Amino acid sequence: MTAPDVSTPVQPTQDTPTLQQLLDRITDPGGRPVPDPATGEVVGHVAQGSATDVDDAVARARAAQPAWAARPDAERVELLQRAADAVEAAAESLAELLSREQGKPLNGPNARFEVGACAAWLRATAATELPVETVVDDADEHAELHYRPVGVVGAIGPWNWPMMITIWQVAPALRMGNTVVVKPSEYTPLSVLALTAVLNEVLPANVLGAVAGDGEVGARLSGHPDVDKVMFTGSTATGQAIIRSSADTVKRLTLELGGNDAGIVLPDVDPQAIAQDLFWGAFINTGQTCAALKRLYVHTDVYDEVCAALVEVARAMPMGRGLEEQNVLGPLQNRAQYDIVARLVDAARDGGGTILIGGDPDPDAPGNFYPTTLVADIDDENALVAEEQFGPALPIIRFRDVDQAVAMANRLDVGLGASVWSSDRDAARDLAARLEAGTVWINKHGGVHPMIPFGGHKRSGYGLEFGVEGLKAVAVPQVISG
Ligand code: NAD
Predict the structure, then answer these.
(1) What residues does the Aldehyde dehydrogenase domain cover (predicted)?
(2) Of the candidates 389, 327, 371, which has an alpha carbon nearest to the alpha carbon of residue 104?
(3) Which of 214, 283, 440, 445 is the most exposed place for a label (fewest CB within 10 A)?
(4) Domains, the chain, with CATH or none
């Protein structure tokens, strides 16, 4: 993931809200308690939105949209820049809240990194242009392609990168003259409500609304007749429900869904040299990342060395409470996800896999901590390979020929990302072209960049985010001909 260096805390200024001030703005003392996944302590209380709250938020967004779209583009650019300033001013408090609610550590590619990426994406979106295209200009015809706002955008997100994914949805939508209603995950509502509160310090009223709640609230928003476009990031199953409900109103959709990314390691690599990048490709955000490396296919010639090098890196990475500065890995965000990881590692063990490290959680310890786990000698059919683990457990599968590796990588019905690891860049690029994934990285995995389009293949979804393509995704093309 490309973002500025945000590992150093931003120095507080007079305008910097404390965490308590942020919480006071967004919490409802009578609301549902939101637990810290590392300790079980209550982080804050969140009001549960109702269907009426969704309807009201959509009505406000609808009413605000024409005036927002009528502003000169330069004003929206300026406001996105100021929104980035506001995020940076509140960065340390936002990071602390994110760490407490999501579980991810402050340091490493985690909470401070995520907040820094929010500001970076706001600025990049403000700096991206989508000019009118002249498509035909000859003696008989002059035709131009313009991009108009869609209207009201519903933005529904998951719990793994709650702030960053909200910005990915909100920033381009606002830039193109849409208004937005956000529905955060029920697991991480406070992070998203705090972020939208900070953005609303600079945005005009009702351009950006948010309603917390569960899947029913999400369904109300995604099926709402007055919502013109849904930006959804989450599981394939929920994406399928949203596709069905979009039919009645022919709603436009961008769907970033689940993945089970394969990485293929060719025999010409230096195992020591790639081990750190392989590790973070798989274990970023403690494995709770859509486009993380979830199945590692390693050529038999370097298999043992790659496994040994990964174990060495894994051993050196401290896992623990996110607020403790030394940690770079945290808990699973929720118990349901912990149970999925535990079940899949058990299936791997039962299927004859060799646990190289981890696989031995203490079920009575506080928090949802599952140890960093590497499993070797595992069958490609094993559940830990075939299902998305979305947590800190990586299966490492041995292969003998490249065609076999490609067949295994492509055999699943999802295709978000993939990677090829080789010292021969041309050979890696040729292999990349054979993989069924929205992005194929070479000698890295999972890096996203605000100017490089990102989207899925197969059941990992459709539509692109980021850059010019991301702006087009929240606009309606209009041809003016004559
Ligand atoms: P989820 O689908 O359970 O929930 C996502 C959001 O959808 C939540 O806000 C939830 O309340 C809402 N929702 C639930 N039912 C709904 C319905 N019927 N209609 C509308 N909204 C509804 O996903 P999750 O467990 O929060 O996230 C994990 C999944 O997300 C993983 O599969 C992961 O791979 C995927 N993910 C994908 C990307 C990507 O960019 N492709 C990024 C992050 C996560």
Answers:
(1) 33-475
(2) 327
(3) 214
(4) 19-257+460-481 (3.40.605.10), 261-442 (3.40.309.10)
What the block records as the tokens of 6 is: 């945000």
Is beta strand 42-46 parallel, antiparallel or unpaired with respect to 475-481?
A: unpaired
As given in the structure block, the two tokens for residue 28 are 């409802």
Residue of 48, 58, 160, 339 best suited for mutating to test ligand 1, as the one with most atoms within 8 Å of CB: 160
- Choose one of 101, 290, 293 to mutate for the ligand 1 pocket test, by most ligand atoms within 8 angstroms of C-beta: 290
Segment 198-212, tens digit of pLDDT: 999 999 999 999 999
pLDDT digits (tens, 9 = 90+) for 443-462: 999 999 999 999 999 999 99
Segment 371-389, tens digit of pLDDT: 999 999 999 999 999 999 9
Do 94 and 6 form a contact (C-beta atoms < 8 A)? no
Q: List, in sequence order, every beta strand (DSSP E) within 55-192.
A: 133-137, 142-149, 152-156, 179-183
46 three-class SS = strand
Share of the chain above pLDDT 70, in %: 97
| Ligand 1 pocket check for 218: Cβ under 6 Å | yes
pTM: 0.95
Return all residues near 395 (Cβ < 8 A) that are at least 6 apart. 295, 296, 348, 353, 375, 378, 382, 384, 385
User: Residues with Cβ < 8 Å from 289, sequence gap 6 or more?
Assistant: 160, 161, 446
The verdict on whether 312 is a catalytic residue reads: no
Determine the Cα–Cα distance for residues 77 and 25; give it in Å rounded to an integer: 26
Between the CA of 257 and the centroid of ligand 1 the distance, in Å, is: 7
Atom of ligand 1 nearest to the CA of 337: 25
Is the shortest distance between the CB of 186 and ligand 1 below 6 Å? yes
For residue 403, count other CB atoms closer than 10 A to its CB: 10
